[in-house]
Design goal:
alpha/beta
């Protein structure tokens, strides 16, 4: 392939001065990650924009390009190249592309799906060390797992994560205005409850939000998201990865969402040993599909040994792989993805608090049901009595109450903690 010719074809904005942004029907939503990208783009570091397949990384990068030109930047200052598998690009190809952009006096170079180029880290390292070029690279979640990135680009790489749509972004793409004031919150509570229910069922993948049926969304999650990740992306980075075992592990983890799991149980179902089961979960975490939530115990060793919870990255994926999933489990999973560095708490008597945010000393219990009673607060109160200085919130379906244990509706929690 003539990569220089392809570079010219992909950078029509050099002549037109306009950036064409791929988008769905409806409004263009400025992602919450956009401000993070803009801040990172002002630094010398190589900025890696990471996220699940089809989560909107390329659109975000195109928006950045449009913003740069809109602020008076010259079209030639920004260069773009999107790779695909059919190109079979290698280090030499990437070197020639960047050299071409450098010769045209580009200041910022955006490389989309760069993980498809074997050895891309070494090429960028050479240019980074000898030029003032700013690199922004995007890639599937498998990009983060390539250990060579950490080794070759140590001290040169900054990560920006693009997550599935938050509830606020979900509302915006559906052309609903999120409440902004206390009066809005009160006036729109019923509407927000209904929208939040939809968000729990559909999840936050941009294309899935526009789909009309559960069957269509389920096929999309399996065929457009999971299969390419398991059978193309991961094996490209980790040839030893077993796609069928990874998929089965994710299905098992989805089945445990809302409760706890142990690696030994997964190993028994998979027919493998404990280390192999643990490795499957680790790969799913690095692929940004799931996150292990550990029990808050006195020692890290005990955390690793005791039962764990799982947070699936997107409710749409959880619903696709667990067709009988309840709204309560979907609500708990959604909250898990909003709690930073989440832990949970369970003692030997079975008392449990769903999530803890140690940095904020905040305990969070999820009760997505019509009525909440003092009995539902029992474990939270037991935890607070033994952990002075902590605060507690109960995330409910529609109950709101200001007291020592604050009750807040899930939709309100999601809008305030995305």
């Amino acid at each position: 392939m003539d990569f220089v010719k392809e570079a010219l074809r992909q950078n029509v904005h050099w002549e037109t001065g306009k950036i064409l942004i791929p988008r769905l029907n409806g409004p263009l939503v400025e992602r919450e990650a956009f401000s993070v990208l803009k801040k990172a783009a002002g630094k010398k570091f190589i900025t890696a924009v990471l996220g699940l397949r089809r989560v909107g990384k390329s659109v975000l990068a195109k928006e950045f390009m449009a913003g740069a030109l809109g602020k008076g930047g010259k079209p030639a200052d920004v260069a773009w190249f999107e790779f695909d598998r059919a190109m079979k690009a290698d280090e030499s190809s990437l070197d020639s592309i960047i050299s071409f952009f450098e010769a045209r006096n580009a200041k910022t170079i955006i490389l989309d799906e760069v993980q498809l180029v074997a050895g891309w880290q070494d090429v960028l390292k050479r240019f980074y060390d000898r030029t003032d070029l700013k690199f922004i690279v995007t890639g599937s979640s498998a990009l983060e797992m390539d250990k060579r990135s950490a080794e070759s680009l140590a001290g040169r790489l900054e990560l920006v994560f693009v997550k599935p749509f938050s509830l606020k972004e979900f509302l915006m793409i559906r052309e609903k205005k999120p409440p902004l004031t206390q009066l809005d919150f009160a006036r729109k509570s019923e509407e927000m409850l209904l929208e939040c229910d939809e968000y729990l069922r559909i999840g936050g993948m941009p294309e899935a939000i526009r789909m009309k049926s559960t069957e269509e969304r389920r096929a999309y999650a399996n065929n457009s998201l999971l299969d390419p990740l398991f059978y193309k992306d991961l094996p490209a980075v980790f040839p030893q990865a077993n796609p069928d075992m990874l998929r089965k592990t994710l299905e098992l983890l989805c089945a445990t969402a809302g409760s706890t799991f142990q690696y030994q149980t997964i190993a028994q179902v998979l027919g493998c040993n404990h280390p192999t089961a643990s490795l499957q979960v680790e790969l799913l975490e690095k692929a940004l599909l799931a996150r292990v939530v550990y029990n808050r115990t006195a020692s890290v060793v005990k955390q690793k040994r005791t039962e764990k919870k799982i947070a699936i990255a997107d409710n749409g994926i959880l619903a696709a792989l667990r067709t009988d999933v309840s709204m309560g489990v979907l609500a708990e999973n959604a909250v898990a993805n909003t709690v930073e560095n989440a832990r949970f708490w369970r003692d030997n008597q079975g008392r449990e608090v769903d999530f803890l945010n140690p940095a904020k000393k905040l305990a969070v219990e999820v009760k997505y049901q019509e009525h909440v009673t003092t009995t539902d607060e029992k474990h939270l109160r037991y935890f607070l009595e033994r952990n002075k200085g902590w605060k507690a919130i109960m995330v409910t379906k529609n109950s709101e109450e200001k007291s020592d244990i604050e009750h807040t509706p899930l939709w309100k929690w999601m809008l305030e903690n995305s």
